[in-house]
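Model it.
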Amino acid sequence: MGYGFQDDEVKTGDVLYSSVLYWNATRLLGGMARARGRADKAAQLEARAEQVRAAVTARLWSGTRGVFMASTGLESQNIDVWGNAFAGASGFATLEQAAAIFAFFRDQEANLFFEGQVRQVPLPTQWGDTSHAGYVDPRSTVRTYQNGGYWATPHHHVLPFLARYDRGMACRLLNATVASFRGHGIWEWVGPFFPSPIGGAPGYTASAANTYFASELLRCWERM
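Modeled.
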């Protein structure tokens, strides 16, 4: 299983999102150790973080597609949208990689966003779409929840990352999300998938909290 918020989708091999989370935690702990005068522990943790970054780049970065792939396993041809935004927002990606990731978001906007909220994989792919590996998940056509729903949960890193390159785009997506919230409530996820379910759990706190966090960072009401 992958990192939480991907609890319904199994990933195999080396996984992007969990690896970036581990890198981030390791470097933060290194900084804490250095602040406490533990230079030896800090150096150990910082070296480990760089090992993780190098390994992920070697195994998962696709120079031809300009993104990190989701995993080295059956999902090796899938793009983890949230994971790439997190890699760009957190400083895991190099400046060149981050610019390429933004270009992917810009060029694929119609395949990534609905009412300002974002899929975990770009249309028309699904997490179960692994036919290239000789395996087909029978649920791969279900565009709901984590296999195709559109979420506001990752807005705390998706929108600030986009704003580094195009604040207008980020603010437009934020405003579309707020309009969605006002129009038919704050949901865990949404999607135009009739007759399948068109929304997840109502009143979902993470959707509201992470969108609010992004709003405070972007401050779209201020002129730049």
